[in-house]
Amino acid sequence: MKPLTIYLILFFFTRPAEGQTNTDYGSGPQYLNHIYYYRGDSLVELEQTSGKMVSKTKAMGYGGSESGLLVQGGQSTVRIKGGDSVRFAMKTGMSMMMDPSMMIHLYKFSPKKGDREAILSSEGGMYNRDHSTTNAAEIPFNVQKGTDDYIMTPASRLAPGEYGFMNLMMVNGAGSRSMSYTVFVFGVD
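and the corresponding structure tokens:
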């Protein structure tokens, strides 16, 4: 066999090994703007779904109104143990001057007819304005700059339930009547 033929055969047999993906993400997040959970020394990609913005009024607005984020399905496939120290990682393509907490928000979801909903704001209505809230379902988190990514840690321990990170920069259907956002969801058991 000629040396060129041997090199071509070796080239084609060694190429598939390069295309295999590494699932432990030991060097940090693999994709930009995706959120990962630290499980031990490896990263687990959170379930990515779409969250639809919904609003409803009671008694034509006199009884108040609510607006929130609705995610389909009762619970996430990504589960985290309640006693674990919870840390998340994200690599952004944005300027290092921007804090990720300006574009990423963490919400606690409540069950709603087989789906999950996070109430972002509520107005008390004409005769009950004292009952207005903003971002009642939002969970504060701390951000630390890593080597090539950001580490996000909830400011307090997460209670059992369903949660999700909403990325304000990942809008689906902007300008249409059904605006939705990319949400990275997980559950705490």
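(Above: one complete record from the training split.) The chain is about 10% helix and 45% strand.
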